[in-house]
Design brief:
single chain; about 180 residues; mainly alpha; two-stranded antiparallel ribbon; 8 helices; about 5% strand; elongated; membrane
Length: about 180
């Protein structure tokens, strides 16, 4: 009888320990989700606060869509997905283009009628997880805020070639899949 009672008490203690362990794991998972959620909110907050050239901010939705499509088509035709990884670091995009893309992203627009094909993006972009992608878009927004003079006109901003293939890839990926 004593052995049975002793065995029963040990089973109950083990069940309590297992339940406490499972509850602590669940709490850690919920905390991680909250951190990821806050990080995304920070990127969205930064994007909402970003200032763009007046000519771009005054574009109507149709003009902004057309301009974004032109940039998207240029990106697509350059076929970065099939190139070596070091191409992502190549600086070949200008600030006017990036301003249009960021405005499009800021307005939470979607590229309607565009084939959402991940094969457009280099595997190094596709391999980024949610958190890394969020850090990348925050990096682009910070770079924009710190390096772009929004008072310049279109011609000046078009001569301001400071954006890498990676920067443009990140913005376009956000527009197509995470916006």
């Amino acid at each position: 009888m004593n052995m049975t009672l002793f065995g029963f008490i040990i089973i109950i203690i083990l069940l309590i320990v297992i339940i406490i362990y499972l509850l602590s794991i669940n709490k850690n998972i919920q905390n991680n989700k909250k951190k990821q959620s806050n990080t995304k909110n920070m990127a969205e907050f930064a994007l909402d606060k970003i200032q763009l050239p007046r000519n771009i901010e005054q574009m109507d939705a149709d003009s902004l869509l057309k301009a974004t499509r032109v940039i998207f088509d240029s990106f697509k035709s350059l076929d970065y997905a099939s190139k070596a990884p070091n191409v992502l670091d190549k600086i070949e995009w200008h600030t006017w283009q990036v301003s249009i893309l960021l405005s499009f992203l800021k307005e939470k627009n979607r590229l309607i009628g565009v084939n959402s094909n991940e094969k457009l993006f280099h595997e190094n972009i596709l391999d980024l997880n949610y958190s890394q992608m969020d850090q990348e878009i925050q990096r682009v927004i910070k770079k924009y805020s710190e390096n772009v003079n929004i008072q310049k006109d279109r011609d000046s901003l078009s001569k301001d070639v400071i954006w890498s293939v990676r920067d443009v890839s990140i913005i376009l990926y956000e527009i197509m899949y995470n916006n």
